[in-house]
From TrEMBL:
This is Transposase. It holds the Pfam family HTH_21. It comes from the Bacteria. InterPro entries: HTH-like_dom. It comes from Robbsia andropogonis.
Length: 132
């Protein structure tokens, strides 16, 4: 933009209009706040309250008077690798109660049964108990 203005002597308004952007967008300078104090506080909370996620940490920070929103807390929380582990799925209890297979030596020693369900072509349900 500056090169265009220097080379052709165009005003800022005309140069911005050529690129279809506003002058305020060209002059904008972002003001990044220092987040080191907030980051230290997030780490302290995460260290003392291990099971707290970023949402609960944000609530505690709000109660302490920090003006930062949940998106900033989430970003810092993720950057520091403080996110909680996913819970392991609980093991199926029926799988733990299974008994080991028995060695069959004669007929009619072991029986097995199962419920079977299906739908017929006209929508009626078919249920059967199969015994083997």
């Amino acid at each position: 933009m500056d090169e265009l203005r220097d080379r052709y002597g165009a005003s800022l308004t005309k140069a911005c209009a050529l690129f279809r952007m506003s002058g305020s967008l060209y002059r904008y300078k972002s003001v990044a706040r220092d987040s080191s104090a907030l980051l230290l506080r997030i780490k302290d909370i995460a260290k003392t309250r291990v099971h707290y996620g970023y949402r609960r940490v944000h609530v505690l920070l709000r109660r302490e008077g920090w003006p930062d929103n949940h998106k900033r807390v989430y970003r810092l929380y993720q950057e520091e690798g403080l996110s909680l582990r996913l819970k392991r799925p609980k093991r199926n209890k029926s799988a733990q109660l299974r008994q080991p297979k028995h060695l069959v030596t004669a007929m009619n020693q072991i029986w097995s049964m199962d419920f079977v369900a299906d739908a017929l072509f006209d929508g009626r349900k078919l249920r059967a108990l199969s015994v083997v």
